C-alpha cells in the first residue's frame, strides 16, 4: 500500500505539504550541502529561519523565539517575503496599491508543494495569500542538488475587481545576522567593466542598481558576494553569492536594521515601473540565483560554474573553438580579399572559427562607419559582391567554422528601417530621440519588433548554410523611455515588457536554431547576467582587450561566470583601447584563461611571433578541456594590490591542471613570486611542464615530477617579477 502511494506520488511528480511538514510546520529547501529553512508560525506567517550549510535536524526551528532575538519592532522574526504593511517599515519585497486605494498587504501561508523535476532538481512552491484581499503570491524555489545552487522567483495574481498596482516585487529576500557584513560588488564603464569593490556595510541602505534598461551591466552588475564577519576569503568563512537572472533594470538593496540584522532584497528595479496587473493575470519575476559556502568564495564560484555549465548556458558541455574576430583587425574597412586573407592566415596557425564583425551590411546606406544602416540587414553588395556564403564556404574549405555579427535591437537614424517604421523606435512622446553611438533603440515591448528581430536572425543565418555562430551586440542603453505600442496608462510596463520581449525573441530563435553558437556581446560586458546567458554559449567580457586590464575584468567576471564562456582575445600592440604594449606571450597567457580568441590582423604578427602564436594555440587546445570544464582555484587576486595574479584550473578527476601566474608591476630584483597550489590530489604525483615559454624556463622544476601534497604545502616559486612577465604550467598526473 505504502509502495502504491509512493508510486502514485511519483507519477504525479509532486507532494503537497507532506504530513511531516504539516506536523512540524517546517519547510526546507535543500541541495546536497545547503538548506533554506522556513517555519510556519501560529499566526500563519512564514518565518525565514535559515540559509546555510545543510541540517540533519530542523525541529529546533519550531521554537517560537527566533534565536532569542529581542523585539525589533518588526515582529519576532523576519518573514520569508516581507510585504509593505503591519510593522514592516524597512524596504519591502512587495508593495501594492489595492483597488480601493489601500496601500498595505499582509501575506500568510496558504499551502506548499514539493516536486522532483528530475533526480537533480526539486521545485518547492510556497503559496501565500492576503487574508483580506484576493491576492496570491507564490514563492518558487528550484534547488539544484549537485551544484548547491538555489534559484528563487515570485509570481503574483489576484481576483480584485480592477487592476492591482504592483509597485515593487522583488525576486528574493534574505535576512542575515552576523557581527559584520562585507559586500563585494562591481562598477565600471565601457572598457572597464566589473571593477571589484569590497566594503563593510554600515547601518542604512546600500543600493546596487541599474536604470539603463539595456546594457545594464556595463557600469554595475546584478551579481554580488556577501561575506559574514570579515572580508571574503578564498578558502575560509561564510560567503553568499547572489546573481539576478535579468537583463533589464535591477535593484539589490542591503539594509542593516536597528538590531543589526541585514535585509537583502533583489529584483527588478521599481523605478518608474508600476505594473497594472489585470485580475486573473500573473506577473512573474526573474530568478535570483543563490549559492553559499562556509569555506569561502572559491567554492561559491565553483558551484556557480558547475551550475552554469549544466543549466545556464546554451551548450555548457561543448568545448568552444579558438576564434579570430575581424573587429580590431579590420573594423569597417574591409573587402572580400581582406577577409579571405585573414581566414588564410588564421588557418595557418590553428584558429578554428572566423567571425565577421560589424560592417558587412546596408546598401542604400552602406555600413562603412557606425553612423548608418543598423536595421538594414542585407549584405553590402559593393563590399562583398559574392555574398556571405562565399566567405563562409571559403572558411569552411580552410577547415574553419564561420560566424557573423548582428545588432538586431538597434536602428540607425539613417537607415531604411527607421524610414519605414518610426513607430518602432523607443521614444518619450514628442521629445527628440537622443542617439547614442549614432543609433536608436527598437521597442521590443512591441510584438511586431520581436517578430522583426526573430526574422532578422533567421535571415542572417540563412545567408549561408555554413554559418555556425552569431555575435549578438547591443551598443546603447535606454534613455527617455517610452513606447508607441504600450497604452498611456501602461508606459511604466516598458522596462519589464522590453526584457520579456527580448527573452521571447530569444526563445523563438533558440527553437529555430538550437545548434548555433551565440555570443552575448553588448559593447563588451554590457549584458552579463544569467537571464540572457542561458540563450548563449559565451560572452564578450569587455571591449578592452588590453591584457593587463583583462586580468582584473576576468577575475571579477569569473567569480560568477565560467571561464569557458569568457571570450578573451589576443589583440595587437600597442593596444587599441589603452595604447599599452604587452609582449605577445603575456597577451596569450591572459587570453588562454578563458575561451581563447584573437582580435587582430594576423599579418601584424611578424618574426618569432608567428611560430609563438601557432605554438600557443596548440597549447591552448591541449589545456582547453581543463580551462573550459575544470574547477577554478584562485591563488592570488590582482585586486590585493601586491602586483601579482595567479589561479589554476583542475580537471574534475584531478589528473590534470593548468596554472597561470602574472606579474602586474616591477617587483624589485629581490622579490620573487611564490604560491601554494590548491585543489590537487595530495596523494598523486604530478609532472609540471612549462608552456608558452619565450626564452628560459621561469620554473626551477620545469619537467620534473612532484607529489601533490608538496605542491600544495611547500608551494612553488617562479622567476617572474617584471611587469608583463607570466608563467603557464601544465600539471599532469604521472
Ligand atoms: C561593440 C563590440 O563589443 C565590438 O566587439 C564590436 O563588435 C563593435 N561593437 C562593432 O560595432
TrEMBL record:
Coiled-coil region: none
Protein's GO biological process: carbohydrate catabolic process
GO MF assignments: alpha-galactosidase activity
Record-stated family: Belongs to the glycosyl hydrolase.
Name the UniProt record assigns to this protein: Alpha-galactosidase
Stored PROSITE patterns: ALPHA_GALACTOSIDASE (PS00512)
Keyword Hydrolase: yes
InterPro entries: Aldolase_TIM, Alpga-gal_N_sf, Alpha-glycosidase_related, GH, Glyco_hydro_27/36_CS, Glyco_hydro_36, Glyco_hydro_36_C, Glyco_hydro_36_N
Residue span(s) of domain Glycosyl hydrolase family 36 N-terminal: 48-278
Binding site for substrate: 190, 357-358, 437, 471-475, 521, 543
EC code(s) of this entry: 3.2.1.22
Pfam families referenced in this protein's UniProt entry, alphabetically: Glyco_hydro_36C (PF16874), Glyco_hydro_36N (PF16875), Melibiase (PF02065)
First and last residue of the signal peptide: 1-19
Domain Glycosyl hydrolase family 36 C-terminal: 644-730
Catalytic activity annotation: Hydrolysis of terminal, non-reducing alpha-D-galactose residues in alpha-D-galactosides, including galactose oligosaccharides, galactomannans and galactolipids
Keywords from the UniProt entry: Glycosidase, Hydrolase, Signal
Active site location: 473, 543
